[in-house]
């Protein structure tokens, strides 16, 4: 049996929106046409795909399975359309980038500037969210580039090591820990209010791992869902925090924060790029990947000349991260 792709599209729109009327608005056709198309499709596949309820419609078990395949199919269709458009010398098209909050705020802007100067005709769209949310967007084919603060264990995603990020303990300049003449003992944090990010944040996971590895259990924690807000709270003397040094360098230079070294401890984490297994990379994504890797290579090897951005940069090899 060959599926009617037009009818599949109608069904997928209803399954996604949960409403025949909203699906009709989305596809710019009449509601009766949507209803008839879904009925015809159910007859074609030989089973009921949607349950009609007073609160709307929802997929049956068979409908949910088919909707997942439809999402992948139409995502591939969009990717093909984007690639055909982007292949015109990368003079037009778009690139959707998703990044964990810290990366989007402090690391991505420099890469965006380089990319825009090389390919001014490409529209850039950046989504900032925590690691788990970015992974979900990549799985849903809502973004082409995904840069996150921790590897994601999902059979449909491949985590590739991207760059190393150094974490540091920050405190207000007048905090008691800032008066220490040398590196402090990690266990001193047990008597401090430790300010942490929200669950699902890669930063929070790294901090939790570092504390556990040293047997440190702070008596009090404060959860704040923004690194910028955490820095402000630390500067105001509310508590201390462990954050990426890339996020605190500016405030340290201004004298509003102090980085406190910890005795015998260096907290680092690997930042990761997520790839959708089996998904074809559009040329704009390949070009952007070339930029972030060349810049990282230049930072790691200052004497090595940076190659110019070329429109034919090959896609990086996919390697599944070791768990």
Could you say what the CATH architecture of the largest domain is? Answer: 3-Layer(aba) Sandwich
Highest-level CATH class of the largest domain: Alpha Beta
From the N-terminal CA to the C-terminal CA, the straight-line distance is 41 Å
Question: pLDDT below 50 for ≥5 consecutive residues: which ranges?
Answer: 304-323
The domain tally reads 3
Structural class by sheet pairing and helices: alpha/beta
Question: What would the CATH topology of the largest domain be?
Answer: D-Maltodextrin-Binding Protein, domain 2
Mean pLDDT, all residues: 86
How would you describe the overall organization of this protein?
With 323 residues, this protein is an alpha/beta fold. The protein folds into three domains: 5-73, Winged helix-like DNA-binding domain superfamily/Winged helix DNA-binding domain (Arc Repressor Mutant, subunit A); 84-163 and 270-300, 3-Layer(aba) Sandwich (D-Maltodextrin-Binding Protein, domain 2); 166-267, D-Maltodextrin-Binding Protein, domain 2 (3-Layer(aba) Sandwich), CATH 3.40.190. 42% of the residues lie in helices and 21% in strands. A hairpin with a 2-residue loop joins strand 1 (50-53) and strand 2. The chain is elongated. The model is unreliable at 304-323 (pLDDT under 50).
């Amino acid at each position: 049996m060959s599926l009617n792709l037009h009818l599949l599209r109608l069904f997928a729109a209803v399954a996604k929106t949960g409403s025949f009327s909203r699906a009709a608005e989305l596809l710019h056709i009449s509601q009766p046409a949507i209803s008839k198309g879904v009925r015809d499709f159910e007859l074609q596949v030989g089973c009921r795909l949607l349950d009609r309820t007073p609160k709307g419609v929802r997929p049956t078990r068979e409908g949910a399975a088919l909707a997942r395949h439809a999402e992948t199919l139409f995502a591939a269709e969009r990717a093909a359309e984007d690639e055909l458009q982007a292949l015109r010398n990368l003079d037009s098209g778009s690139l959707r980038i998703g990044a964990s909050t810290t990366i989007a705020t402090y690391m991505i802007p420099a890469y965006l500037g380089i990319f825009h100067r090389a390919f001014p005709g490409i529209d850039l769209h950046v989504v900032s969210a925590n690691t788990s949310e970015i992974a979900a967007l990549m799985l849903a084919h809502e973004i082409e580039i995904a840069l996150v603060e921790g590897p994601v264990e999902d059979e449909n995603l491949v985590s590739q090591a991207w760059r190393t990020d150094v974490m540091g303990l920050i405190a207000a300049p007048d905090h008691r820990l800032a008066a220490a003449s040398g590196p402090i003992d990690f266990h001193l944090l047990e008597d401090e209010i430790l300010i942490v990010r929200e669950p699902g944040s890669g930063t929070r996971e790294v901090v939790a791992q570092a504390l556990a590895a040293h047997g440190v259990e702070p008596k009090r924690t404060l959860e704040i869902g923004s690194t910028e807000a955490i820095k402000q709270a630390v500067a105001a003397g509310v508590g201390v925090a462990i954050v990426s040094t890339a996020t605190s360098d500016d405030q340290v230079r201004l004298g509003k924060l102090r980085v406190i070294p910890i005795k015998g401890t260096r907290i680092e984490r690997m930042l990761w790029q997520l790839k959708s297994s089996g998904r074809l990379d559009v040329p704009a994504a390949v070009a952007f990947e070339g930029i972030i890797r060349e810049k990282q290579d230049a930072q790691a090897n200052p004497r090595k000349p940076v190659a110019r951005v070329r429109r034919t940069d090959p896609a990086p090899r996919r390697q599944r991260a070791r768990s």
